[in-house]
């Protein structure tokens, strides 16, 4: 029995990890042939994105019914704006991204994109219009070209290269003996954290979605790489509605709006300057983080 259980267990663990990493659920289900928890309604329509306004309206959710994580959360991402979600560890920031991608359904309230409740649209159309740059980009044991084009099978080599250039990884790839045909993954080339993130950025640029979820990397990148990548992420966000799941505050100061999450609810909202001037929860998180950074320096 143990022999049978172990691989199943492994698959279970892998499945959960990948779901946590916010990759394309459709692909996951194809790979593992697991039924989706969330299914399309009969007659579900395709999501039509015009401006890309996102509304969380009194959203309630918990992974376990006994333990609510979001307790009536409301906020709005106006079309084309960048909204950062901050809050202490475990506050539910990544959960917001997972709900927007509809990995789970809300248990109360609603999430709407341009007026359409996520439960009324097809998952395929939803996933096609939302790009996710996860904390840790999942790479497949295939060529680096395949990994960038992943999700856009019809992309031409010129399109793949243009995306790689914009993500500042083209020169690195072009310098490899096999270029875009280089194998990556377990048996191939191992990419650094920053290189993997750039593959993730290139992949998302190629998909060209009107809505973006940036699940900010917590992995340690050196400061120079981090600020370069931040610049590339900012450039990618222009003209799109962006939700930044911010695990650190240093990168959110220039967001159009910052939503402060506490105990499953919004406690403060505003620009970095306005929130600092207010001297509330955000100001407290900010001064504590600055102190931690000073101590670490
Ligand atoms: P951090 O900044 O530490 O990453 P976060 O604000 O992003 O935290 P979430 O990942 O949204 O937090 O998690 C919110 C709560 O939900 C946590 O208490 C976490 O333990 C719990 N949680 C997250 N994923 C699951 C899951 N798949 N099943 C059960 N509980 C979960």
TrEMBL record:
Cell compartments where the protein resides: Cell membrane
Keyword rRNA processing listed: no
Keyword ATP-binding: yes
MF terms (GO), sorted A to Z: ABC-type transporter activity; ATP binding; ATP hydrolysis activity
One GO cellular component, as annotated: plasma membrane
Domain ABC transporter: 54-288
The organism's place on the tree of life at top rank: Bacteria
GO biological process: intracellular iron ion homeostasis
Protein name in UniProt: ATP-binding cassette domain-containing protein
Origin species: Rubellimicrobium rubrum
Organism lineage string: Bacteria, Pseudomonadati, Pseudomonadota, Alphaproteobacteria, Rhodobacterales
Residues of the full protein shown: 312 to 608 of 608
